[in-house]
Amino acid sequence: MAKDILRKPKGFNDVYFNKPGADKENTHYCPGCGHGVVHKLIAEALEDFGVADRAIMISPVGCSVFVYYYFATGNVQAAHGRAPAVATGLKRANPDSIVISYQGDGDLGAIGGNNILQAANRGENITVIFVNNAIYGMTGGQMAPTTLVGQRTMTTPYGRSVENEGYPIKICELLASLESPAYLERTAITDVKNIMKTRLAIRKAIKVQIDNKGFSLVEILSACPSGWRMTPRKAKEWITTNMMPYFKPGVYKDVLNERKPYAPAKLNLSLDEIDEKLGLKEEAPSFPGDMSGLKENHRNPRIKVAGFGGQGVLMLGNVLAEAGMLQGYEVSWLPSYGPEMRGGTANCQVHIDEDKIGSPVVSDSTVLIAMNKPSLDKFVPDVVPGGVVLYNTSMIDQAPRRKDLEIIPVPASEIADATGDLKVANMVMIGAYLETTKVVSKEAVFAALDIAIKHKGFIPMNQKAIEQGIEHVRKIKG
Amino acid sequence: MAKELIKGNEAVIKGALLAGCRNYFGYPITPASEIAHAASKYFPLLGRSFLQGESEVASINMCYGAASAGVRTMTASSGPGISLKQEGISYAAGSELPIVIVDIQRGGPGLGNIAPEQGDYNQVTKGGGHGNYKTIVLAPNCAQEMCDLTMLAFDLADEYRTPVYVFTDGYIGQMMEPVEFPKAREIKVEKDWAVWGNRESRDNLINSIYLEPLELEAHNQKLQDKYQLIEEKEVMFDTYRLDDAELVTMGYGIVSRILKTAIDKARKKGLKVGLLRPITLFPFPNKKIQELGNRVNSFLVVEMSNGQMVQDVKLALLGAKPVYFYNRMGGVVPTVNEVLNKIEEILK
Ligand SMILES: Cc1ncc(C[n+]2csc(CCOP(=O)(O)OP(=O)(O)O)c2C)c(N)n1
Ligand code: SF4
Ligand SMILES: [Mg+2]
């Protein structure tokens, strides 16, 4: 029977050249199996619509794993349940292709449940052909998510029980609750009438994709005489008497009239345009620096910047590193990241060096910029003798006790507030640091601000705060 | 191009786009998320496609689809996500699909933490999923290499039709350093095996099933031959102050940077120590290690793991020279001084 139906339908390979072994004429399906009929209907539709060249069939894991033996289309075999994800990748890589995800109930409803749900919910412009045979055919007849209540399988030897396994999953009903899918229908492979309905549903689902109208799926109730331990004739009857009352055939969603065709726009950029979109620049401002004349304790700084989240600690370090780079030095910037920041403290570690930087980690710092008290307390012990400590006296009432450090008190928050915004306390610190050490110049820092700060409107205020920081250090140093 | 101060994670994406990557699929995870952020920003700007998959399982399978269609494609994640991708990577290795996978390691096992660690070494260099396969593993240690090695990863993936990892740790991903990006250039790769959805590719098949054991054995042999060729041709490493070294230290990613500083300090104390940094973890620089084994006294492997790469070093040396080991775990990054102490202890 199956042999007659399957002999070289339109859209099938003349010879099943991908099939191993001597028999390259017959399918591998059992007599009375629904898969072969469904294959034929798909192949025919692809030919009739003239899209067989563009078509890519995805073979799932299940009895239809060998879909690729038969279809004279591009073929991709996917991992168990992942066909909708693989289809997504194929379609997004090549929106002109016609991608068909062919899946069984175990593949689609169990192991790949989330993959089908999410592909449907994205409205992925693919066609899914879902063969529901209420069993795992391939692996010898175990329970499927669609196995009926009471149905005996190799893993439900006493029948599926609602208490242990719950009710069979209704995929069309489930997916119909989503906004995105365009077309969902359930049909059955029983008599000629139902096969014709299946044929029309498959054609419609493929047409939806050709018209770029989004996600379509046809669920097909289909016989597995081997898994069900029935004759092909009995199996067909069982679909009618047992499956169809629970899995009711019908159209579950059809919003094709509301859907506008959508195909992603193609963009062809020149190489120069690519550089531009990536923000790559031929030239950057340059302020060649020279640390050779600086005090030994200021040269090649290893800087720790620390404070509350929200005090602009990361930006402070970022601007210093950026400025160092513009001066021709080697630089690195390493942030604290993740929950550490959520807890309310932030720190970053910056190197500005004449030589290549080995470890970017700052464990023994030569500079500490502390924006709040916990940061000062925590990191002061790590500063090397002779190191520089700039601390925010607006938030820290006690100076560090160590006598072997160059300590610069800066009322950063107060100065920032007077400048117009508490948020620029970090910039006040930058000004204080550059005036203290001269590692980076004001010009380089201003140029760094232009690069690091996205909202250009904030730049004048930041510049002013930096000037104030410089001014402050000039005053205290006399 | 002018230097740009940029996070390693972002440099990956600019490098990928310059290498002609067309499709990005990924699921967020710290400390790799900036890769997805940058991808979602830049891929659409260049008319390419970014999609946040529903999981790492989905994302790697989306890559599987896109790679089947013959385009350059990538995903990125960290430990827990890499574990989930292993099934898809095994399939991609079996089906010989070029996919670039970035792993920005964090602390494990389980949910662990988000601090930098190196406990994924075994799962990326030894196959990781089921079956007889390996993947090329590139290990950048700075932002510049995050760009350069990502670009190289795409070339190697296509040349050998294999998944390739760009493999590093949270620090290298999160750190900003100056990067000099190359100018965009024309990228054209012919893939006559791909399933492109046209007449020419109609007979093509992407597949990892070989039902007949003899056929599967032949397929496996073909893969093994490929890995051997990769071992012969693609080994990359970096050396530092090895000329007169008595002790060779080894480490990759952030550890190699710490080692470099420790070596400078040790040298100031007159200790003859150098660095061998594998840039490819598979293929592993076995020959170089053996060659050094003939002339140095001992090796010190430093890892932020329970001792994974050190096994490969021992295997390369087969007991020829002592191999010392220093490690931290759980996201604790060894300090320069800890490593220096270890060096002094060995050489005293
Ligand atoms: C990850 C994984 N788990 C399990 C299997 C074994 N397996 C192969 S097919 C299958 C069930 C397929 O059932 P279904 O999707 O309903 O397809 P059918 O054979 O009924 O058409 C299973 C569990 C596998 N190949 N991969
Ligand atoms: S086991 Fe069932 S689904 Fe599989 S080929 Fe046989 S009848 Fe078809
Ligand atoms: Mg089934």
Secondary-structure blueprint:
The complex is a heterodimer of chains A (478) and B (348).
Chain A: H1 2-6, H2 34-48, E1 55-59, H3 67-70, E2 74-77, H4 83-93, E3 98-104, H5 105-111, H6 113-122, E4 127-132, H7 162-165, H8 171-176, E5 183-188, H9 192-210, E6 216-221, H10 225-228, H11 232-246, E7 250-254, H12 271-277, E8 302-308, H13 313-326, E9 330-335, H14 339-342, E10 345-353, E11 365-370, H15 373-379, E12 383-392, E13 406-410, H16 412-419, H17 425-437, H18 442-452, H19 459-477
Parallel strand pairs in A: 1-2, 1-3, 3-4, 4-6, 5-6, 8-11, 11-12, 12-13
Antiparallel strand pairs in A: 5-7, 8-10, 9-10
Chain B: E1 3-7, H1 8-18, E2 23-26, H2 33-45, E3 49-52, H3 56-68, E4 73-77, H4 79-94, E5 100-105, H5 121-125, E6 136-138, H6 143-160, E7 164-169, H7 170-174, E8 176-180, E9 205-206, H8 213-233, E10 237-240, E11 247-250, H9 254-268, E12 273-278, E13 280-282, H10 286-293, E14 298-303, H11 309-317, E15 323-327, H12 336-347
Parallel strand pairs in B: 2-3, 2-4, 4-5, 5-7, 6-7, 11-12, 11-14, 14-15
Antiparallel strand pairs in B: 1-8, 6-13, 10-12
Helix pairs in contact in B: 1-2, 1-6, 3-4, 9-12, 10-11
The structure holds thiamine diphosphate, iron/sulfur cluster and magnesium ion (MG).
Question: Can you walk me through this structure?
Answer:
The complex is a heterodimer of chains A (478) and B (348). Chain A has 478 residues and is of the alpha/beta class. Chain A has two domains: 8-254, Thiamin diphosphate (ThDP)-binding fold, Pyr/PP domains (Rossmann fold); 296-476, 3-Layer(aba) Sandwich (Pyruvate-ferredoxin Oxidoreductase, domain 3), CATH 3.40.920. Helices cover 38% and strands 17% of the residues of chain A. Chain A contains 19 helices and 13 strands. In chain A, helix 5 (105-111) crosses helix 6, helix 17 (425-437) packs across helix 19 (459-477) and helix 18 (442-452) runs antiparallel to helix 19 (459-477). The longest helix of chain A is centred in the middle third of the chain and has 19 residues, at 192-210. Chain A is elongated, with a radius of gyration of 35 Å. Mean pLDDT of chain A is 95; it is low at 1-6. The mean pLDDT of chain B is 97. Chain B has helices spanning 8-18, 33-45, 56-68, 79-94, 121-125, 143-160, 170-174, 213-233, 254-268, 286-293, 309-317, 336-347, and strands at 3-7, 23-26, 49-52, 73-77, 100-105, 136-138, 164-169, 176-180, 205-206, 237-240, 247-250, 273-278, 280-282, 298-303, 323-327. The longest helix of chain B has 21 residues, at 213-233. Helix content of chain B is 42%, strand content 20%. Chain B has two domains: 4-233, Thiamin diphosphate (ThDP)-binding fold, Pyr/PP domains (Rossmann fold), CATH 3.40.50.970; 238-347, Rossmann fold (3-Layer(aba) Sandwich). Classes of the chains: A alpha/beta (478), B alpha/beta (348). At the A-B interface, strand 1, strand 2, helix 4, helix 6 and helix 12 of A face strand 1, helix 1, helix 3, helix 4 and helix 7 of B. Strand 2 (74-77) of chain A pairs parallel with strand 9 (205-206) of chain B, so a sheet runs across the interface. The structure holds thiamine diphosphate (TPP), iron/sulfur cluster and magnesium ion. Thiamine diphosphate is lined by residues 61-64, 80, 104-107, 131, 133, 135-139, 144 of chain A.
